[in-house]
Amino acid sequence: MKRLIIALLVVFSLPLSAFAADGGKFGSVDIQKVLLMSDAGKEAKEQLGQKAAKYEGEKNSKEGELKKLKGELESQGVVLNESARGAKERDYQQRLKEYQRFLKDAQDDLQAKNDEFTGKIVDEIVKVAQDFGRKNGYTFILVRNETMIYLDPSADVTDEVLKAFNAARKK
Fold it and tell me: What is the pTM of this model?
């Protein structure tokens, strides 16, 4: 598999080297860095953090209720008749299911919000990078990722795109 990837990279790099010989400009953008360092990314992270804190408070409250109910069940379990004990156990099990459903729903909601924020911001970053490339005469601007074997540091335009992205968001 590695040989195939390397062979593909070599094959695809040959046409790129021909463009470079003609004086084409190449750049790369680390989308993840722009996402994390941009004002929009920081705002999204803060909003997600606030939402997570709200869920954490609800989670702690529900856990407290469950612990209290469990304690009552354990302390009163011997004293209660079978019918009352069964009712308390069913109530505890129902609340435990609700708690577990709450945890899953909260996690799903946070993941969906994260995906929504990330998708929207990445779309904006791509537009800004395209505009940056057009204005500055770039032939290619590639997304920097883990499959790149080597990239000349001078081809990294991440910081410039980050500045342009933050400036575009303020307009």
Answer: 0.73
Handedness of CA 99, 101, 102, 106 (dihedral sign): positive
The C-alpha atoms of residue 140 and residue 128 are separated, in whole angstroms, by: 14
- The string of pLDDT tens digits covering residues 8-42 is 344 444 444 444 445 678 999 999 999 999 999 99
Angle between the N-to-C axes of helices 82-135 and 158-170, in degrees from 0 to 180, rounded to the nearest 10: 100
Residue whose tokens read 């790369």: 28
Tokens of 22: 């003609």
Signed CA dihedral, 42, 115, 161, 18: sign only: positive
Q: Around Cβ 66, how many Cβ atoms within 10 Å?
A: 15
